[in-house]
Design goal:
- The protein is mainly β and 559 residues long.
- The protein has 5 helices and 38 strands.
- Strands 26, 27, 28, 29, 30, 31, 32, 33, 34, 35 and 36 form an 11-stranded mixed beta sheet that branches. Strands 17, 20, 22, 24 and 25 form a 5-stranded mixed beta sheet that branches. It has a 4-stranded mixed beta sheet with strand order 2-8-7-5, with no helix packed on it.
- The protein is flat and about 130 Å long.
Amino acid sequence: IIEKCSFEASKGSGGKWEHTQFIKIIDKEVPVLTVPSDVTVQIFDNSCSKFVSLSPVVVSDCDPDPLISNSKTNKSNNLSANYQVGVNKVEVTAADHCGNGVTKIVTITVLDGVPPQVHCKQNLTINLANLDNQNEMTILPSMISNGFSDNCTPDFLIQTSVTPQKISCKDIGNKMVFLTATDQSGNSAVCSTEINVTDLNGLCNQPVFKISGNLKTPNGIPITKADLQLTGGVTSILQNNADGSYTFDNLTKGADYKLAAGKNIVPLNGVTTFDLLLLNEHILGKKLLDSPYKYVAADVNQNNFITTADYVILKKLLLLDLDSFPNNTSWRFIPQSYKFVNYHPILPLYPEEIFINNLQQDYIGADFVGVKLGDLNFSNNPNQLAENEKRNSDIISLRICPNISNLHENHVFPVIIQSENSLKGIQFELNAQDLNNNKIEIRWPENSKCSENDVKIDELGQDFNLRLSWVSTKDDLISNGDTLFYFVCSGPNVNGLIETLHFVNERLKAEAYDDEYATHDAELIKDVIKNEVPDEIQVEIYPNPVNTNLNILIQSKFE
C-alpha cells in the first residue's frame, strides 16, 4: 500500500507498507467412479471357470492422475479375467492425491450349466423293515445309488433324493424308483431302477385294529363337522360322519394312541339372551345350573370359575362387539366316560383327550360329549337343523306407538311391551334400510329397565341397525305396558322411516323370556299416524290394558 503524498522511492520505505497473503485451494470432491454393470454368465463344459470380458473402469476427477485399484486383477482399470463358478465380488477403488476416495462392488456370477452324473443300482431287492408310525419304510439314497459326481460340486455337497421316498406293504413286488442328484448350481440328473419289495419279516401279516366312537351333545344329538385327531402309533386327522360317528382303521397292534376332537365354527350357534339370563341367575344364586356340562358351557373364559367376566364376554358376543370367544374355541369335547367330581369350581380339570395304550383289539366306544360354549340350555343346532328348544305359544308384542310430540321438529315414538307375562329378558335386532335423509336415535324413559349398555347401534350409510340384549339383574321385570325406549326421529318422512323398521331374525331372533323361564316369540307392531283426517273424533288409549301409565291419542277434523 503506497501513500502518494509522503512516499518517495529514493528515500526508502516511508509511505509504503507490504504483506504477503497465502491462498490455498482444497479439493474435497471424491472422484466419479464408473464401473462395469453386474453380470451373470454360464458355462457348459467340464471346466469350473470362465473368462469374462468387462468394460473398463473410468474415473473422472480434477486430479489428472488418480489412483485406481481392484481386488481381482493387477490391471487397475481392467476387470476382465477368469472367474470361478459361483458369485464373485470385485472391489474397485479410486482415490486422488488430495485424500478423497470412493469404492464400488462389481458382482460377476458364473453358473454351472452341466448337470451331475448319477447311476442307480440294478436288480435290487429291498426287504421291509423299520416301519414308522404310518407303517411305511423310508428309502435312503444310499440304497439306490451306484455313484454320482459333478464337474464343479464336490460329491459331499451334491444333494440326493429318492422318489417315492417311502414304501409299504401295498408296494410288495416290483416297483420303479428314481434317484435325483442336484449340484450347487441347481442342475439335476435322474436315474431309475426297478426294485423288488419283499416282506421277509412278516410285517404285513400283523393284525390291525380300529378305533371308533361318536360325538353327541349333552342331550344326545349327534354332532357333525367336527375334526378328530389321532396321534401316537399313527398320526391322522378326519372329519366325522353325518350321524356323529367316526372310525380310524388299520391301526398297528400294541401301539399307544391319543385321541382328541375339535370344532370352532359359528360362535353364536345356540347362544341367545336366554343363556345370558340363565348365567346371571346362576351368578346371583337364584337358579343354579343343574348339569356339569352347563358349567362347562358357562365358563366361556376357561378359568374353571363362573363369574361376571363370563357374563361380560357373552353379552359382548351377542351385541357383536366380539366375533369369537377370546382364547377359546366354540366347542369343548369331553370323554363321555369322564365323571365330574366338583361343578364349581370345575375341579379337577376335565380331560379333553382319550388315551388308548397297547392297542390289542378294536376299541369301540371312544365317545365324546360336545359342549357348545355359551349355550346354557343346549339349544344349539350341531347339524344345522331346525331349532329344538321348547317355546311358549304366547307371543309378546313390541309396539311402536304413534308420535306423541312434535317438538323442535323431533318426532317421538314410544316402543311399548305388550305381554301377558312379566319378562326376565328380551332380545331382538331392528333394521331400517334407506333412511332417505331421515335421522333416528333412541332415548330412555325415566326408570327404564334397559340402558345404553344393553344395545348396540350401527349406522352404515343410509342403514340403521339396533341390536338389544337385556336380562333382569335386580328383579326389575318388564311388565305389560312398559315403555322400553323412545325412537326420536327427524326428517322429511319419519312415518315412512318407522314403517321400514323390521326384525332381523337371522342373527338375533326376536324373543323374550318370562319369569317362568319360558321362551316367547316376539312380533313388531307399528301404529303410525296416517296423514288423512278422520270424519269424526277418534280416541285411542294405549297401552290397553292399562298399566301404571297410559297415553290418550285424539284425532279430529276440527281444529
